[in-house]
Every structure is written in C-alpha cells, then in structure tokens.
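step=encode ok
step=design start
structure_in=
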C-alpha cells in the first residue's frame, strides 16, 4: 500500500511529461515566420526549422514526411537559404546549370527593388526524381539563394506551401 501512492504519482508525472513532449514536438512542425536581421521567410506547416545547424546554411528546414519506395530514407522536401558573398545572379544561374542541368521556367523580376530570378529544375540523382524550386535575390555584391528540393513524386502536393514560402522570402 505504501508503494501505491508514490507509484501513482510517478505514473501521473510520466503521463504529463509524455503529453508535454508530444505537444512540443507537434508545435515544432507548425507554420511560423522566421525573421532575422538579414531576411524573413514563412516556414510551411509540416517542416522543421533546423536551429544551430553546422551545414553553413543561413536557414534550413525539412519536411516531417519521407518518400516512398526507392526514396524511403529521403525527406519529401528540404528548404535551404544560402548566402554568397561577392557573387551575382548570373554566376549562381551558371553554377546551378552546371551542377544540376538546364534551367527551365526562368524569368527575372524585381523583389523589393532588388534583382531576382526564379526557376524550377527537374533532375535525377541515383535514379530518384527531384525538383529544385529556387529564388535567387541579389543585394549589392551579396546573393541570397532560396532552394526547395522536393522529391518529384511529392512536388504537386507540396507545391502550394513551397510557393507561399518563396513569395514570403524577403531580404532586409
């Protein structure tokens, strides 16, 4: 009997902790506005913002869900922002074309008074289809490159969320 009360207290604490952990984990995948001194972007729901990442990206987020079949261990999508010092849009376009392949659907527009470029590149890596949706914005001699790398089989289902993230991305 004397163990019953401490045992019930322990079980109650475990249930409380488990519920709190599940709630915090779910909140991490909620949509949110990422706003820092260099840029802002709206992270879509279902993506986790990687904090204290040593990858060298200014921003990185990945989808909660994984691919199917041959892409079983690959996230459905990743969003990255990389900043290139002393670069131009033209240099980044050329690098992308060399790394991945020809650039389709290209057009130039103005983003808050800055030169910008958007595009979509379908490609294959290890026989798995991907689509890289990107937005490149130049500010003086600095280039900000936002990339959304998506498994081709999931592009349509994630396209609206990724488009909202692309449109929300602004340099300060």
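sequence_out=
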């Amino acid at each position: 009997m004397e163990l019953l009360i401490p045992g019930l207290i322990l079980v109650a604490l475990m249930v409380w902790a488990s519920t709190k952990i599940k709630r915090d984990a779910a909140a991490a995948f909620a949509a949110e506005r990422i706003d820092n001194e260099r840029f802002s972007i709206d992270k879509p729901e279902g993506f986790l913002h990687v904090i204290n990442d040593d990858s060298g990206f200014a921003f990185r987020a990945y989808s909660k869900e994984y691919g199917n079949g041959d892409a079983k261990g690959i996230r459905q999508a990743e969003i990255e922002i990389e900043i290139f010092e002393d670069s131009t849009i033209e240099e980044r376009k050329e690098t992308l074309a060399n790394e991945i392949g020809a650039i389709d659907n290209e057009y130039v527009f103005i983003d808050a008074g800055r030169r910008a470029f958007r595009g979509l590149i379908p490609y294959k890596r290890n026989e798995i289809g991907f689509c890289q949706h990107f937005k490149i914005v130049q500010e003086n001699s600095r280039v900000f490159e936002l990339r959304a790398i998506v498994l081709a089989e999931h592009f349509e289902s994630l396209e609206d969320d990724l488009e909202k993230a692309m449109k929300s991305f602004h340099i300060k």
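step=design ok
step=annotate ok -> Helices lie at 4-28, 89-99, 155-168.
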